[in-house]
Amino acid sequence: MCDTMVVVRPQGLLFAKNSGRDPNEAQFLCWQPRAVHEPGSRLRCTWMEIDQAAQTHAVLLSRPFWMWGAEMGANEHGVTIGNEAVFTKEAYAKVGLTGMDLLRLALERAATAEQGVATIVELLERYGQGGGCGHERRGASYHNSFIVADRGEAYVLETAGAKWAVEQVTEGARSISNGLTIPGFADRYAEPIHTHFSRCRTRRAITESGAGRATGPGDLMAVLRDHGTGGLAPHYDVTTGALGPCMHAGGTIAASQTAASWVADLGSDGDRHWATATAAPCTGIFKPVRVTEPLDLGPTPADTFDPECLWWRHELLHRRALTDPERLTAAFAPERDDLEAKWLVDPPEPAAAFAEADRLVAAWTETVARELGRDRRPFWARRYWQVRNRRAGVPVAAHRDSQARAS
340's torsion region: left (phi>0), alpha (psi -120 to 50) or beta? Predict the structure, then answer.
């Protein structure tokens, strides 16, 4: 489950998104340069092939490792998009463009937010949306909503099958979660049961309120870290896991983990983007990134633990801190927050920021490992994570679980 928000201000727009996926579904930053394509070229997306555009823009994407499409991203013209799964009364097609495909295609083909909306609508009506979108349950499908923004304007685009509705955000804050929100369209097409269990209304109330108070990107980073509890520890609902924008999996019916986070400041004097490139913003670091300056961040992650991968190195910290967040996250969060505050005022070069963040995460991981004690999550959440750690081969489960049993 995800949350996306935008703040429209006279001096430019703020954008933020948490990407909720399955816990072992690693996500990575992917740079694609501007390109010209031969007439008649075809493009393979996640599940289907479509006509390629004559030329595509340079983009920076945050992608689940197995998809062609992306959960969020930006292009060289300042267009920035996040998408949400939504559940509707319309049928789910077995084959089509996924919402993540539509997002990437819009970034590659549109130079403004308005063009981005038009691109998604044209592709939706031409090819349809569909296909499996899950990792643990690859056949799971849904429809999509989007926030499409640039330096001057923003739109909410919601879909139900091939049907759609659009709303321009003219001022202030607007957020979307995992339910339809545009009046009339939502009343007609929202499917109530899945929408309810997504807890989208609870999270949207938090994100829209927090975004409404935001004066800069740092405030949106704080909203993305919000557990809905007022503290460092999430509350675990037995059916759906944690209920705040910073999602922590562990429910018995539905479970989603924030797998990556992004914040953007889109201004008339240029764009500034920050990405965690790791899961759980409550334990991660927002690093500056640039759309047209690729970084070598190591190998692309998959769904098994690999210490050579940035995403999985951070999981050692995240999954240990998750056992007792109020105590363990508090051991490093103040240093992290001070670092980000400095970077927001005077951003370092992206490569230097990633190197410093990697060094700090390694140090914090050792600190947390020394302080491990009782796993304070409810038993169903502990069991959920034991299974995911075992599947991925994460080398933190045995020590933690033995301490939990001893307690």
Answer: alpha
